[in-house]
Amino acid sequence: MPLIQVTAQTKTLTNAQQNDLMSRVSNAVLKAERAPTDFEGARALTWAYFTEAPEGSVYIGGENIDNPPVRIAVTTPEGALNDGTRAELVAEIGEIVDDIVGGFEGRLNHWALLYEVAEGSWAGDGQIFPLAGIKAAMNIK
To answer: What pLDDT was estimated at residue 66?
Structure first.
């Protein structure tokens, strides 16, 4: 039950690149959580938001730059990932961003930030979703 938030400056990606990025990152997170990527229940619980920052609104080292990096934040329930699956996920996100955005000379092309929501703190529709219930709904064995 991941929540993916991607921020990129306006005109960094075409619509096709944006769609490709969001699809591939969503699948990467599902794989890292060990959810079947073709299971509709898991896909329905994988929410992703793409936000464009206005041109000129990203700063590196206090300076406004052209062609700024992409920010990818992935939030999962506590325990959904472990050290190994986190490493797999950030490696795959790196490959995806390199493939779509390309490398940047002398600096990073993205940040990947992983957040966990404490057990008993993921909720929606007026109810709390414990990790065991999330795993069952997503067909994670």
So the answer is: 83
